[in-house]
Amino acid sequence: MYVDTRLQSEEKYTYSITDEPNLDQYQVMLDSGQEDSRSIRVPKTGQATLRGLQPYTEYNMRIRACLRGVVNSCGVGPGVVVRTLEDVPEGMQAPVVVAKGPNTVDVAWKEPISPNGAIREYRVVRRRYEQTAELLVNIVPGNLRDLSFVNSGPDLEPYYEYEYRIIAINSKGQTSSPWVLVRMLAAPPTSQSAPRLYALSAYSIRASWRPPKKTNGVIERYRVDYQARWDDPTRFPSPTEQVSVDARTHSAQFSGLMPFVTYAVRIVAINHAGATPSEWVETRTLQAAPADVRGFRVEPVDTGEAAILRWALPGRPNGVVTEYRIYDREIATPIYQGSSQLFEYRRLQPHMFYDVQLEACTAVGCGKGQYQRIQTAETMPSDPIPPVFGFINSTAAEVRWRVPVKPNGVITKYEVYRRSMVDDREKRNVDSIPNAVLVYYTKDTLGVNEFSFVDTNLKAYTRYQYMVRAINSKGFVDSDWVEIRTEQAASEGLDPPIAQYLGTDPFSLRVSWGAPRKPSGVILSYQLQRNSSTPLSFLPTDDMAYTDIGLKAYTWYSYTVTVCTAGGCSTSAPTLMRTLETAPLHVVPPTITPVNSTTLRITWTQPQIANGEITRYELLVDGVSTYVGRDTHTLMRSLIPDHQYEFVLLACTNGGCSESLPAQGRPAEAAPRGIAPPMLIVMGSSSVQVSWTPPSLPNGNIGWYELRRNGELVYTGLALSYQDFGLTPGTRNAYSVTAYNTMGSVQSPEATTTTYASSPAGLQPPRLFPLGPSSVRVEWSPPAMPNGAIYNYTLLVGSDVVFAGMGYSFVVQGLESYTQHDYRVQACTPLGCTVSQPAKTRTMEAPPAGQSPPILQPQANQDGSHDGVLVTWDEPRRANGEVQYYELSRRRVERQPAEVKYSSTHLIYNGTMMTYLDKDPLLRPYSEYEYRVTAVNRAGSVASIWDMVRTYEAAPTRVSPPTFSQVTANLITVEVAPPQQPNGDITSYYLTINGTQEPASRAPIRTVGHGSPLHPHTIYVITATVCTAGGCSTSPPAHVRTAEAPPTGLLQPIVAEVTPTSAIMTWGSPAQPNGVITRYELKYRTDCPVSSQPQQLPCSLGDVVTAYSGEQMRLNVTGLAPYTNYLVQVHAYNGAGSMNSSAISLTTRHIGPEYVAKPTVVAKDRALVVDWSKSFLLNGRLDKYILYTNGYRTYSGFSEQTTVVRENYSKVTSDVSHGAGDGGGGVRTTATPKLVVASPFYKEIWFIIIIALIGMLIVFVVLACCLKNTGRKAPYMRERVPLPPKPLRQAKLWQDAYPCYDSALAYTMDSDAYSTVRSLRSHPYSITHKQHQIFPDTHL
């Protein structure tokens, strides 16, 4: 026979077989003798095609031929080794890709599961995640053992995701592994831009910045470093402070800064690989109110009515100090206001404390220091307060006084003077009063306002006068004299009361007393007091005796009597008295102590309440008096041991006796005496009944009895009888009993008796010899004492008789295997039978039988996930021996649509325990397995049937990252692929978005953002968690960025500084930029009302003006109108839209009013309508308009026009005034228009000078005439001064003085001017008196 191999294809072979006669069949044996060997039956045609072979694999093939009709007649031919051809590789596993740095990746892989030939080379291919362009990065020969490659270089960017795969190539083709995703390690960020800074206030700065151009990772946070910079080079540099913000925040406002200080700020971008700082940028905080305002340096003035205050700059000016103010705590307004640093505070009181406070102001605010207490200089005290008096009695008086109303300094000493009442007039000067005595002085005056002094040794009912002198460092002052009178004194010479017994009553006393020898006044009452009890009061007319009842016997009592007058009370010396005796109370029972068995010691104590002196004690024992005396102890002898006695104690005084409660006691025990011999009753041939009685004198408690037979102890206990078994038939025995207590024993005389004759004795147990699993050979011997002729032997197995006869051996059949039985032999004589003690043995072992299947319980861990299978089982129903060990086997059940397959059987346990926890790593979750148990003993084994169990579910494995099918600004549609190994039924899917877990869902596709909207333009890290009943598994994270949306959360701008025509506005980035902010726009328009005025006019909102468009967040808006309300709004734009902030109201600062045009004057009949509505720009809050006509106020109010009466008016002046309420500071601006209606000439300077000279000349002429005509008669009328010129001449002078005079406007003059003109015509020189009507207004 030979084998002819011809290779036909890569996976099949054809064999040519020489056919021989008588051959039945042929088989092709592949790899015979190996684990995976198999045989294939082939037809007898001589050729066979083998399919299903592995490519490029060596096989050892043999031909096996068998003869027809002959058993075991098969033969095997020689082997042939052949190899199949190559094929395309299969099963290329994914490489292991590990990022080792920001630009380095380690790639390692294994050869394909089925190379199907010689691998020529491996190609390493890379692409960027979510891109299709692939790059061949390396080619590795296929014959290398180390299948790894390090890919590094600048083309790998930090923290970017790349995918790698391996292509294996042989001569037939190539296969590719799956793509493997790897993220490069992070590197520190690069190119962090400098921040933009805005000083928001004196204490805060807002910084905004852009992210680094290359984050090189996930920015964990930004750190804002800021440091105060000082212009003084000698000052120690300030430490750098830090503020950390979230990575999503690109602006930060940090406060707690120092005002008006330059700060340098930089931004540090931080990821987990490092940090990158920006350049330092400097800015200065705004001014603020000064801080650390220091105190004054005080210089008191000697008069005590002023103090000079000096001060220095604040410790922290926080700007330029423009003004200082000084406040007094008691005055609402400042006492000083100015820029000087010195102030003299006047109109003060001497040596008084004043709380003053310094306030320093900058352009933006004021800061106050602490109130400082200053003190003026001392002067002599004044306004003393007369003393007052506290208590006054017959010998003493308490003098009280207070500090003078005006101490004007520190009172260092007080002196108290006293004098007796004198008849001559009182004088205030102490030195001039001979009987004035210094009775007290004190220098302890600091911190005390009230003083007191008790003047003693005064005479009763006498008049005295007191005066107090107060002294300080500048002088002294005396108070007025104050008079008092001492009071009456108490009585003297009161004897102690007298106490007496009332017969034999021990509970009462009779107390009496007498009047005092020196009453010292009218006796008002007597008071009797016992010990410290409440006194009893008696009138002087009452009986001076009292019976005191309810007292305690044999007790000392103290009595005193107090007598009271108007001047006080006096108490007598005490009287002591003891009440009579009576019988004692509460006699304590005696204490009994045993001394020996016949003696007791009895002791007792004195009664708790003796009620007198104890005269004797009497002791009664069982009612019989055994002791009388005064001792507190005695001995009782000749007593019965352990006998109980009753004791009663009597205690007696001179007032009677009392007895105690009874007490019991007994002496100690003694050895018992008087026990009789035991009584014996023969119960049979081998037993005797023994009984006895207790001793006649037990002398205590019998503890136990001992029974002896023939001197041998047979019983110990408290029973009074005992049946003695096991005696020899027909023998004589002697018994005695011994009784014991704690002190000794007594033994009875012996008693004897003889047992009856009996059956055989001394039969030994049989001898046993197991012969097999069901038979035992039994042998026995005759009894040692037959006690007669043996006529029968009986063999008992348990209680069953298996043999009766005269033999000495027997084979017992039909027993159960490995079972223990009791075997006994019975021998009988005509007088009776005896049975031997049992003998035990087991039958031999047999193979076990009846092994039940195991009990299978799938196990779960604390999370409910698969954790093995707990297998327990019972012993076989018939062990038939000792089970040596158990074998536990397992196989997996694979259910297919058409059939059920089982894996190979694995022995997983071999031992003696009957429980096993199978936690084999090969156990798969949610799979079916079968188990069986095999019990093994020395004779064989038995196996149970297979039992099936399904393992619990476990968490899925190999969960892929989620994918995103649709992304908007607020919604993301997430798809989760099924796990590659579900390990159970999928119950729910969870999505975790930036660490926040969404509610569970049963659908793998879900749109997030409906419940909690997502933030636009935000990177979200999303992981998918897939859950079964056995647990959950989380996928690797996937990153996605939402689309942009219009920004939100833009706060209204902040007004940093305001002037009358400009405002510095700052604003911050939107709280939610929702994208990249491309520009900001600042818009404003005038508000309604345009300004706050007392009388508002109709208005409308102004046009919107775009003041700025750009990326900065600070702007100085110029071109504004003073004291005008504006609405300012900021708009922020990004790629998706814009958002405007809420409008902020802005009011520019006020300035003085501005004159712009003449007022208009319109004549209507007898009136003029003056309108100045277009004459002024108010530039502030209007206080009032004032209209002056010829220098006189004719109108004051808020209206912009008024009507005046047309008379001889010459000039109209219009004023506008700002009040202090709007911050105008009380500045008044007067605008005079060019329009002049008429001006009275008499108000011109030149006219007033001429008139004054003419007046002086006239006065001189008049005086000359008076002197010339002295002593002459009075002149006639014709001799007077000539009349003044005619009125026409006056009109001519008027026109010369005012060339622009218009007669049509002359009616605008007021009545005063008109009357003045008339007076000028008649008395041209009287105008000189008008100059005295000037009124200086000093309240401007």
UniProtKB/TrEMBL annotation:
**Where is the Fibronectin type-III domain positioned along the sequence?**
88-190, 191-291, 292-382, 383-492, 493-585, 586-673, 674-761, 762-849, 854-954, 958-1045, 1046-1154
Membrane-spanning intervals of the chain: 1245-1267
Q: Under which name does UniProt file this protein?
A: Usherin-like
Keyword field contains Cytoplasm: no
Superkingdom to which the source organism belongs = Eukaryota
Q: What keywords does the record list, in alphabetical order?
A: Membrane, Transmembrane, Transmembrane helix
State the organism named in the record: Priapulus caudatus (Priapulid worm)
Record's PROSITE patterns? FN3
Gene3D superfamilies cross-referenced by the UniProt entry: Immunoglobulins (2.60.40.10)
Q: Which InterPro entries match?
A: FN3_dom, FN3_sf, Ig-like_fold, RTP_Phos/Ushers
Asked if Membrane is a keyword of the record, the answer is yes
